[in-house]
Design goal:
This is Terminase small subunit. This protein is α+β, with helices and mostly antiparallel strands. It has three domains: 1-79, no CATH class; 104-136, no CATH class; 142-177, no CATH class. Helices cover 44% and strands 17% of the residues. It contains seven helices and six strands. The chain has helices at residues 26-39, 42-48, 53-61, 66-93, 114-124, 126-129, 132-137, and strands at 95-101, 104-111, 142-143, 151-154, 158-164, 175-177. It has a four-stranded antiparallel sheet with strand order 3-4-5-6, with no helix packed on it. A hairpin with a 2-residue loop joins β1 (95-101) and β2. The chain is flat and about 65 Å long.
Length: 178
């Protein structure tokens, strides 16, 4: 990545093509990869270099286009940093939602998506917020006693055994599910 412009540098050899006035020149291929890294959208990157997306995919499929394909994938991977930044921003600052009254917008409120926040925490900090924490912190519960049905339940993996007994019935009326 260039320290001054904050643009990624993709070192690849453009696909050799027959020279045409409206074709994929080496400069257009490089500009396309840079635009793809910036936008993350093939159609938008093609529009910026005045080429069709079908011709871009055809260039990508060429046997001599391995370096172009690799640069394409690297550009898409690079573009995901913007998606991550936006998700983090929405998690922290929320998203504004309009409030309407009698067909007119009279205000707005901020919606905070807790599922997004938990997803980000679990994926970015799994050692602290990962799924394992639920298994460790969940107490092991044993049911049984005079007022409760006889059942042993393990919360860390499933049901071990349940004894069913209808109220007022003797032991013959109940059944065991194992």
């Amino acid at each position: 990545m260039d320290a001054y412009t904050n643009k990624p540098e993709f070192d690849f050899t453009p696909v050799p093509v027959r020279p045409r006035h409206n074709g994929w020149t080496a400069e257009k291929q490089i500009a396309f990869i840079e635009a793809l890294a910036e936008t993350g959208v093939v159609e938008e990157a093609c529009r910026r270099v005045s080429m069709s997306d079908s011709s871009a995919y055809a260039l990508r499929r060429r046997p001599s286009g391995a370096a172009f394909r690799n640069a394409w994938e690297a550009a898409l991977d690079y573009s995901l940093h913007r998606v991550e930044e936006e998700a983090l921003l929405r998690s922290r600052k929320g998203v504004t939602r309009p409030i309407f009254y009698k067909g007119e917008q009279v205000g707005e409120w901020r919606h905070y998506d807790e599922r997004l926040t938990m997803f980000l925490l679990r994926t970015r900090r799994p050692e602290r917020y990962g799924k394992w924490i639920e298994r460790v912190l969940a107490p092991e519960v044993e049911y049984g006693g005079a007022n409760e049905p006889d059942a042993a339940i393990r919360l860390d993996g499933g049901i071990e055994r349940i004894m069913l007994q209808a109220d007022g019935d003797s032991d013959e009326g109940g059944g065991e599910i194992a």
